[in-house]
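Hey, can you fold this one?
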Amino acid sequence: MATGTASNSPTPSPKPRQLTWLEEAFFNWIADWGTLGIEFTIAVGDMSLFALRTMRWLFNRLPKRETLVPNFYQVGVMSLPVVALTGTFIGMVLAVQSYFQFRQLGLETRLGAVINMTLVRELGPVLAATMLAGRVGSAMAAELGTMRVTEQIDALDAMGTNPIHYLVVPRFLACVILIPALTVMADFMGFVGGYFYSVNILGIDQHYYMYNSEQFVQSWDIFYGLIKSVFFGGTIALVSCHRGFHCEPGAEGVGRAATAAFVYSFVFILAIDLALGIGLDSIYNTIWPDHAANFGGG
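Sure. Predicted structure:
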């Protein structure tokens, strides 16, 4: 009996092996990256659905004039001073930074071509978009975030007014339509600032400055920057409105939404600038291979 009782007793289960600190750190690292990937996938999907709803309302029915004009005024007219001032100083900074290097090579008369080419292709569109994201994008996110926190967006929905059509579409149209004009203003004031500093302070001959600018800056370069600015404007509007619509409760949530709108917009601007630069250069090289070869294009 004693033997049978002893043989029928349960066998104790082995204790689980304790993880070392290195294994635990590795598993935590994998979990963190997995969480980040899931959150990124959710954010991209939510942003894509938000953009699709905006496009649907944009093509189904345009907003009324009463909602368009105030947004056009805020985005376009109120942004002109800061864009013009920024463009002027950027033109001067380009002249200061480029002159001494070009002087060592004996190419200081080509300074106008370098300044103007850089402005119309890159710095003009990017700076105009950055100023728009900082001044208008943050304001959009804060305004819509406040409306979300105070349940004004829910009230619009309850009254039968679609918030996307009433709040997002006018802001999207204002950014897309008016950012090319802001880009032209940034380019023009950059031309003026670069010309003034190069001719009047650095002593570069006026004729050669204008001649080289005319020879190197082509119509395609101007359209190159304007095409990119349209994509920048649409991105700023969508990102800022999306952040405002998904604002967290409280004043802190509104502040975070405004900050995130600028940061995300700026990151997207740089990423889109890279993608469009590669794509537009490929199109140019395909359509005008002779011109591309003259300027060192592949």
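The CA atoms of residues 130 and 266 lie 6 Å apart. Let me know if you want another pass with a different chain boundary.
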